[in-house]
């Protein structure tokens, strides 16, 4: 029964029978047959199937919520047993922001995999704040203000955000000498990232404005600023290499993003933390503490406030 519940959850999570079949290493026909058998046993249609998409029925939606809760409870029970045994093993699902994960986590994952061969690691790169319980995520890296009390949070590092532009942009447009002069320059930011909330010698200030290019991609903004299109507020983990190489320069270096933003490992609250989660957070600490590698050049980072 539990296997069919897990299959049903996998179909919803993957978005299609064929995608779920690839994840579960089953044929699409077998997935369809088992799903039909589950619906027959329950006496209810759970999923509406068309040639293009799947959608949950009202009953299916309610059942899915209960199934996720059941599977999460089973995983926690298994984690409790594993915790008593003290051996990290089994599934570990991690959610990481796309650019950060690609640049600063993925290159070192082999060390974690080699150290914990019994862990089945599942890494999901996404810029969305996923619902950890609904998506059955064990631990997530989040970059932002301190998470609310619904999650257990471990601060990994500060997140310094710096104003920057390319030398070519400065040569053509000049360098602003005060925050007020930013009004005369092209600003670059992904959707939702403006206004900029900054901290300077005289305290906090807000920079209003609109991005020259409307985009939901922070990586697009990064490429635009490197190409000389305007001024951006970027995290030091994203641009430290370019600052050191001189392909970007700091603008108004007395200003930074407000210091309330940090890099956190978050997990669902639980009385007992699984050894898998403990091992992964310790791995992150080894990578980033006491100071993350991108901030070890004093010309790049600001004070950890």
Could you characterize the architecture of this molecule?
The chain is of the alpha+beta class and 305 residues long. The protein folds into three domains: 2-66, Arc Repressor Mutant, subunit A (Orthogonal Bundle), CATH 1.10.10.10; 86-159 and 261-292, Periplasmic binding protein-like II (D-Maltodextrin-Binding Protein, domain 2), CATH 3.40.190.10; 161-257, D-Maltodextrin-Binding Protein, domain 2 (3-Layer(aba) Sandwich), CATH 3.40.190. It has helices at 2-14, 17-24, 28-42, 58-85, 98-105, 109-115, 167-173, 218-226, 236-245, 275-288, and strands spanning 47-49, 54-56, 90-96, 119-125, 139-144, 151-158, 161-165, 187-188, 196-200, 203-207, 231-235, 249-250, 256-257, 262-268. The strands form four sheets. It has a five-stranded mixed β-sheet. A hairpin with a 4-residue loop joins strand 1 (47-49) and strand 2 (54-56). Helix 1 packs across helix 2 (17-24), helix 1 packs across helix 4 and helix 2 crosses helix 3. The longest helix is centred in the N-terminal third of the chain and has 28 residues, at 58-85. The model has no long low-confidence stretch (mean pLDDT 88).
